[in-house]
């Protein structure tokens, strides 16, 4: 395997694992929309949660979602919101990312995320599972349960696929890789195959640690996921008869 290829795959894993070393647990009294004010408007200037025409999109995940090393307005959720608003979509995008979180951690706060009453949810989780060598069946079960819960609550979900380093062993790597397309197919949700397409391994699009994207890098991430988000929005609006 080439050095560039190994570095790229390693980056995909490490970017999810950086940040907090312990499993984070949100306080029950915390406000989920940490990027929102008391009136429900997102910090990036989006629509009010009190406006019935506003769609709420929750971005749930680890350091890739949290925007580790950047101001929240430079992370992908805020940039996604700005692009959607510019294109005429009445949305607010809530950053529900926690750096260092595993899929088990994400599963424990699923019900908490639902208090934000999301219409759509972008789920990016599992990278830290691979970093820790967690049995892929555990990751698969957590993702399966989360997708089922969100869909049972009428949430349209977009699932972000993850990859892990090759030195975990071929069987482990393949079992892990297969989690995401299998989950997407089972629950009939949109799958973004490679979240860091065009960004991973590109020095000028990452911070000095060469792990976390810059604001410009997140702009490319938004371009990658945007067609999936628009498709999900249109599908959700069609189901709602709007």
Structural summary, described in words:
The protein has 242 residues and is an alpha/beta fold. Helices cover 44% and strands 11% of the residues. It has helices at 3-17, 63-66, 76-86, 103-108, 110-114, 127-131, 136-152, 170-187, 215-239; strands at 55-61, 91-97, 120-124, 156-160, 190-192. It has a five-stranded parallel β-sheet, with helices on both faces. β4, α8 (170-187) and β5 form a beta-alpha-beta unit. α3 (76-86) crosses α9 (215-239). The protein is globular, with a radius of gyration of 17 Å. Residues 1-17 and 19-41 have low confidence and may be disordered.
Please describe the topology of this protein.
Elements: H1 3-17, E1 55-61, H2 63-66, H3 76-86, E2 91-97, H4 103-108, H5 110-114, E3 120-124, H6 127-131, H7 136-152, E4 156-160, H8 170-187, E5 190-192, H9 215-239
Parallel strand pairs: 1-2, 1-3, 3-4, 4-5
Helix pairs in contact: 3-9, 7-8
Number of helices: 9
- Can you tell me the residue ranges where pLDDT is under 50 for at least 5 consecutive residues? 1-17, 19-41
Radius of gyration based on Cα positions: 17 Å
Count of DSSP strands:
5
Overall pLDDT confidence: 83
- Sketch the topology as an H/E string, one letter per element: HEHHEHHEHHEHEH
Proportion of residues in helical segments = 40-55%
Q: Based on CA inertia axes, which overall geometry fits?
A: globular
Strand content: 5-15%
Supply the helix-strand structural class. alpha/beta
From the structure above, extract its key features.
about 240 residues; alpha/beta; 5-stranded parallel β-sheet; 5 strands; globular; disordered N terminus
């Amino acid at each position: 395997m080439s050095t560039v290829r190994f570095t790229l795959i390693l980056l995909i894993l490490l970017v999810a694992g950086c940040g907090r070393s312990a499993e984070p647990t949100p306080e029950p009294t915390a406000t989920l929309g940490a990027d929102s004010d008391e009136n429900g408007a997102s910090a990036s200037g989006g629509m009010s949660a009190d406006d019935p025409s506003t769609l709420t999109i929750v971005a749930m995940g680890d350091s890739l979602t949290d925007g580790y090393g950047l101001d929240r307005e430079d992370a992908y959720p805020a940039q996604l919101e700005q692009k959607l608003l510019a294109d005429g979509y009445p949305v607010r995008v809530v950053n529900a990312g926690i750096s260092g979180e595993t899929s088990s951690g994400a599963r424990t706060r699923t019900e908490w995320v639902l208090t934000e009453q999301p219409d759509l949810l972008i789920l990016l989780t599992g990278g830290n599972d691979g970093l820790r060598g967690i049995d892929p069946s555990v990751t698969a079960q957590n993702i399966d349960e989360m997708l089922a819960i969100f869909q049972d609550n009428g949430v349209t979900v977009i699932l972000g696929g993850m990859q892990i380093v090759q030195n975990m062993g071929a069987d482990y790597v393949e079992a892990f890789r297969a989690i995401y397309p299998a989950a997407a197919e089972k629950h009939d949700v949109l799958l973004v195959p490679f979240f860091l397409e065009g960004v991973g391994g590109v020095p000028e699009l990452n911070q000095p640690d060469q792990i976390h994207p810059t604001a410009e890098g997140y702009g490319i991430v938004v371009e990658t996921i945007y067609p999936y988000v628009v498709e999900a929005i249109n599908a959700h609006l069609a189901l709602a008869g709007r």
